[in-house]
Amino acid sequence: MRYQSTRGQAPLLGFRDVTLAGLASDGGLYVPEAWPQFSADDIAAMADLSYVETAVRVMLPFVGEDLSEAELRELCAQAYGRFAHAAVTPLTQLDHRNWLLELFHGPTLAFKDVALQLLGLLFEKFLTGSTTPLTIVGATSGDTGSAAIDAVAGRHGVDIFMLHPKGRVSEVQRRQMTTVLAPNVHNIAIEGSFDDAQAMVKAMFNDAAFSGRFQLSAVNSINWARLMAQIVYYFYAAVRLGAPGRKVSFAVPTGNFGDVFAGYAAARMGLPVERLIVATNVNDILHRALSTGDYSAGTVTPTAAPSMDIQVSSNFERLLFDVGGRDGAALAEQMRGFETSKAMRLTNAQLTGAARYFASDRVDAADMSQAMRWAADSGEVIDPHTAIGLAAARRADVTGQVVTLATAHAAKFGTAVERATGSRPILPPRLDDLFDREERYATLPATFEAVTGYIAGRAQPKG
Ligand SMILES: *Cc1c(COP(=O)(O)O)cnc(C)c1O
């Protein structure tokens, strides 16, 4: 298995190098050269498998020669052994048609753990024996940061610098990052938005002088290995609801388009999916793009679902590449146009290609709260992100079962949940001293100079 860049200029890489690199050197994102194919028989044979065994089946074709099956199994067993539920990602029934896929049983209570616990172990495995330390830089709208920090804290040969928009993540989210005091963990509060932070991370990779001094890597969902790990739970859930005999739909609370792109990958690999429902909040660039072809960024409106408060959705480029004929040169030009004007039109091929898989919806604050109350009536306390997915699921025009991805534990967003439902969810016992722990982080202006200066003073340069 080899990986190619969406912008067509970077070298083809194997799995190990793609994992360590994150972003491609031409500014594009890596995608597999071809999608592995699973037949109906292959899918039927997953019916009785554990999560870890499902993960091995689904991911083995992607890792090529860089991991043996036994090594992959060992890493999955270790990563998913840290989850607080024996099913790892259990399904919960809401009514005759709606289900929740609970992705929040990992150490930091958000679905990001599913991918990042594995990614942390992959970094360690691939860096064994290497003398060059890895400098991970990332931007987070909340959940990526804590999940990435948990996955690499204290690991040898890795430093992590995590940028979050100051004052725009929940207090639980901030404390989950800033109370990790391991010396290789560096939290930076940026005086700006998530998009500012994400743009700065991209600029660091593209700045030859800066990126040449360090072995930079990314943990944002621009890293292919993260998306790969997320494909697994689409198979795991669909098989439990009757795949390959029945088609299910998935409603996905979407920000950076990583999670739902993994669902698209599952569909391309042969999983029968009726529809992938892209649910956005009022920051609705993806809904506009998929419904009208207008991909134009406005300004970010802060909402109760901060992990979806973005206007530029990095992984959307992967979809545009795959459904638009895999023309790297054309896409590079389209993306350069977007980077200058913050607006572009999808081509007809992109729009019709996406329409074969996706539906989309925009959910406002009132509909979000209503979905939280509806779930509470069935005894399920859900977080604001999940509620946006569920609101879209309930009004989607589909015929089969619908699985809403429950992307965070309700207690991560206790204030918003209390406002909607009248009762405050409690943190699981493993986090109940979070508010007593010491915090450590730097606050910096949202300028490239300030942030790169800070990192350069603390990261280990190439040997
Ligand atoms: C990250 C996140 C999302 C958005 O996922 P993307 O892969 O960026 O689309 C949704 N909900 C929660 C709770 C998240 O942490």
Automatic annotation (TrEMBL):
Reactions it catalyzes: O-phospho-L-homoserine + H2O = L-threonine + phosphate
DNA damage is among the record's keywords: no
Domain of life: Bacteria
InterPro entries with a match to the protein in the record: Ser/Thr_deHydtase_PyrdxlP-BS, Thr_synth_N, Thr_synth_N_sf, Thr_synthase-like, Threonine_Synthase, TrpB-like_PALP_sf
EC number per UniProt: 4.2.3.1
GO molecular function list: threonine synthase activity
PROSITE patterns: DEHYDRATASE_SER_THR
Family statement drawn from the similarity comment of this UniProt entry: Belongs to the threonine synthase family.
Protein name per its UniProtKB record: Threonine synthase
Organism: Sphingomonas canadensis
